[in-house]
UniProtKB/TrEMBL annotation:
Localization annotation: Mitochondrion
Protein name, entry field: Acyl carrier protein
Keyword flag Lipid metabolism: yes
SUPFAM superfamilies xrefs: ACP-like
Length: 128
């Protein structure tokens, strides 16, 4: 796409120099918008709770304020396994810095919402 745009701009510039193009070169505008997540906070929370129930957690109620280590009784290995399971559930990647900062289910939900890319955007599966 960028190659065809640059060729078009170079062709317009060449025509302007020769006088073949009397009007000003066309402006090229790129519409780069950030797609909002198609998931609601409630959807992400419900799916996250379902994933976390697959682990041996010590509390029956899991909410946004639930802490992974204190309330769910997860050690670092369980926590990493839970993040991997959530990555697979939502098709996202928790980078190391974010993974080290996330302490509660609510923080995890917010990260998922901020980094979720809906499939209909059309990214190649290899890129995702």
């Amino acid at each position: 796409m960028f190659r065809s745009v640059s060729r078009s701009l170079m062709a317009n510039a060449a025509m302007a120099r020769t006088g073949a193009l009397r009007s000003a070169p066309a402006m090229v505008r790129f519409n780069i918008t950030q797609h909002s997540s198609m998931l609601t906070k409630e959807d992400v929370l419900a799916r996250s709770v379902q994933v976390l129930r697959g682990f041996n957690v010590k509390t029956p109620e899991i909410g946004l304020e639930t802490k992974f280590s204190q309330d769910l009784g997860m050690d670092s290995l369980d926590y990493n396994d839970a993040l991997v399971a959530l990555e697979e559930e939502f098709d996202i990647i928790f980078d190391d810095e974010a993974a080290n900062k996330i302490q509660s289910v609510g923080e995890c939900v917010n990260y998922v919402i901020a980094n979720y890319i809906p499939e209909e955007i059309g990214l190649d599966a290899e890129i995702r």
